[in-house]
Write a structure and sequence with these properties.
Order of helices and strands: HHHHHHHHHEHEEHEEHEE
Shape: elongated
Number of helices: 12
Bound molecules: adenosine-5'-diphosphate
Structural class: alpha+beta
Largest sheet: 5 strands, mixed
Helix content: 55-70%
Distance between the termini: 23 Å
Strand order of the largest sheet: 2-4-5-7-6
Length: about 450
């Protein structure tokens, strides 16, 4: 099993995270465009004179391009919190270059306020990004500019008149207004995020309370039903005792009652499993298919041998998920495959392959197959394909695949079956995965 390491979010988060960061990066590109327009306008109107406007424009163009590029690639880098600091550091470098070309650390020092934008921006990209780290990065960039000037390596270009002209004051006031409004935009965005977080937390708490109530209810119902069903089993066993010397017809009927009661007992047990297994809290981690299948192989060994079936684990890409629950998923699919393959020539293949940002797990058998019209139905609670013409295999309760579906969907994945009668079945699961090996365990529901 692969090692878990810090710095990456859970498999359910990346899409939301990438969308949030994309929005923030686009606003970043917008801010640079506005900043450029502002400088060019001030220059064109003669309010201020920037002797190095061409170089400044080149820095602006680079900043806009980099921000757009990063906006369309957020899904690749946003999982690592540290990448936000890299992003903000790049922007801090661009601001520093603009400051250097626009008069240096003192002449146009007021533009220092621009750094504040990136301090807030980091938090809008990823709410867990520390504003202090970004503030320190910006501070260092500005200090480097000042130190470079002090050392005489860079001579600031005078852009302001002495004394300062009215037009220059207007430019600074307007710039201050724009910068502050941009900060307000982010503050607003953060507030919206905080509000939706609070709403979501309240909903999650309500759902959890409902879930617990439902679990209690199922527990009570299954518990209360167990006793009468057990009594039916007990009494039918007694009636079948030779001391009662039942006639043939009566015996057949009592055996039928016994079978029905046994089935009801299995359904009650499976219903309890359904609630139990899917509500267990578990951490996400990297799992290995061979390790996930091992307990199931051990449990099913006798059945596999009795059937003379061959089980092969063909490939084993690491799987990002909750190991106990995924163990239950593969155990269920394997158990079904063993049940439905023909005697002495059963072939069952398990496979896990990485496909982009997903892992594809397949459990393929050469069993009796499933008619197409039941492909969806079998994943519903108590959903089963009809027994007729399916080799007289004893049927279960139809709960197993419903559990499989719930677990897979809880992982943000999908499951389906490809099958037709007589040509075997292939159960396919697609699970999202972080796209590198550096992932950490996440606490889950
Ligand atoms: P159970 O096996 O307890 O009936 P499941 O939910 O696991 O419940 O399966 C639902 C139904 O799907 C089964 O009753 C069977 O009709 C069909 N099925 C599942 N797996 C296979 C398989 N590998 N081959 C053929 N039919 C299958």
């Amino acid at each position: 099993m692969a090692e878990a390491s810090p710095g990456v979010t859970s498999a359910n988060e990346p899409r939301d995270l990438a969308a949030q960061a994309r929005g923030a990066a686009l606003i970043g590109a917008g801010a640079w465009t506005l900043f450029l327009a502002f400088i060019v306008l001030a220059h064109a109107l003669g309010l201020m004179h920037f002797p190095q406007l061409a170089r400044m424009a080149a820095v602006f163009a680079a900043a806009i391009g980099v921000n757009l590029l990063l906006a369309v690639t957020t899904h690749r880098w946003i999982r690592w919190r540290v990448s936000v600091y890299g992003y903000e550091a790049l922007n801090a470098v661009f601001v520093t270059l603009v400051l250097a070309y626009a008069g240096g650390s003192v002449q146009l020092g007021i533009v220092f306020v621009t750094y504040g934008f990136f301090v807030v921006h980091g938090g809008a990209m990823r709410s867990d990004a520390s504003p202090f780290v970004t503030a320190s990065i910006c501070g260092m960039a500005y200090a480097t500019l000042a130190a470079t000037e002090a050392a005489g390596w860079l001579t600031p270009t005078p852009v302001l008149h002495d004394p300062v002209r009215a037009g220059e004051r207007v430019v600074f006031v307007a710039f201050g207004l724009i910068a502050l409004n941009y900060l307000a935009l982010y503050a607003q965005r953060m507030r919206t995020l905080a509000t939706s977080n609070a709403t979501l937390s309240a909903k999650a708490r309500a759902l959890e309370a409902n879930r617990q109530e439902l679990e209690q209810f199922v527990y009570r119902v299954t518990h209360d039903l167990k006793t009468p069903v057990n009594n039916v089993l007990l009494f039918s066993d007694r009636l079948l005792d030779p001391e009662y010397a039942l006639g043939e017809a009566a015996r057949t009927r009592v055996e039928r009652i016994r079978q029905i009661a046994e089935h009801a007992e299995n359904m009650i047990a499976d219903l309890w499993d359904f609630v139990q297994i899917t509500s267990q809290p578990e951490h996400l981690t990297w799992c290995d298919l061979t390790a996930l299948v091992a307990p199931a192989l051990q449990t099913l060994q006798a059945q596999i041998e009795a059937k003379g079936a061959r089980v092969t684990i063909v490939g084993a890409a690491p799987i990002w998920g909750r190991s106990k629950k995924l163990g239950h998923v593969v155990a269920n699919l394997l158990g079904n495959a063993v049940r439905y393959v023909p005697d002495d020539r059963g072939e069952i293949d398990l496979l896990a392959v990485a496909e982009g940002v997903e892992t594809r797990i397949t459990v393929r058998d050469n069993g009796i197959g499933i008619p197409e019209e039941y492909h969806r139905h079998i994943f519903e609670l108590y959903g089963r394909a009809p027994e007729a013409g399916r080799g007289g295999v004893p049927q279960g309760t139809g709960v197993g695949l419903a559990i499989v579906k719930r677990i897979v969907e809880e992982h943000g994945g999908t499951v389906w079956v490809e099958s037709s009668p007589g040509s075997g079945s292939c159960f396919v699961i697609r699970l999202p995965r972080p796209d590198t090996g550096r992932a950490r365990s996440e606490p889950v529901l």
